[in-house]
Amino acid sequence: GGNYACSLKGQEVAHEQGYSQVLWLDGVERKYIEEVGAMNVFFVIDDEIVTPMLTGSILPGITRKSCIELLKNWGYKVSERRLSVDELLQAGKEGRLKEAFGSGTAAVISPIGELKIDEQILRLNGGKIGPISQKLYDQLTGIQWGRIPGPEGWSVKVCD
Predict the structure, then answer these.
(1) 3-class DSSP state for residue 159?
(2) Residue 53's CB: how many other CB atoms inside 10 A?
(3) What are the sequence ranges of the domains in the chain?
(4) How far apart are CA 136 and CA 144, in angstroms?
(5) CB 51 within 8 A of CB 42
């Protein structure tokens, strides 16, 4: 909708460079990661799954909330915190950035195979979907389609 109209120029530039989405930063300091495209974003760094904390400028997505709940139920360490571009680049250079993905209602889980930040390129998981991204996608779509049960209260039967 109208909330994303201001993103069109950035999206155009990304497409011209061969990328399908834009990694958005905070509007004040322009150094903290907020979203990817119109989706919430997650990064697997070492044994921690990081997603930007909700600061009022980030959409509190229901898929984001579902991912956090599932990941915690599976025993992963999930942190909702500020993540700077510098920290992300450092983790990538050191090989500690294992995978990244966006989450949203339409895409469910959208793996990120490559990030370009300024002139630095980070390739993740050989450009393929990572194991955590795949597990989340399988679980969430399985719940959506009624193939597997979700946590209590996630699904409501509306007709027979």
Answers:
(1) coil
(2) 13
(3) 2-144
(4) 12
(5) yes
Residue whose token pair is 């597990």: 135
How many CA atoms does the CB half-sphere of 153 hold within 13 Å? 2
| Cα–Cα distance, 132 to 78 (Å, whole number) | 12
SS3 state of residue 93 = helix
Whole-prediction pTM: 0.88
pLDDT tens track, the chain, 160 positions: 444 545 555 555 555 655 556 777 888 888 998 988 778 999 999 999 999 999 888 889 999 999 999 999 999 999 999 999 999 999 999 999 999 999 998 889 999 888 877 888 888 888 889 999 999 999 999 999 989 998 888 888 788 7
Tell me the angle at which helices 131-144 and 62-73 cross, rounded to the nearest 10 degrees. 110
Please give the CATH topology (third level) of the domain spanning 2-144: D-amino Acid Aminotransferase; Chain A, domain 2 (3.20.10)
Dihedrals φ, ψ of 22, to 5°? Answer: -115, 135
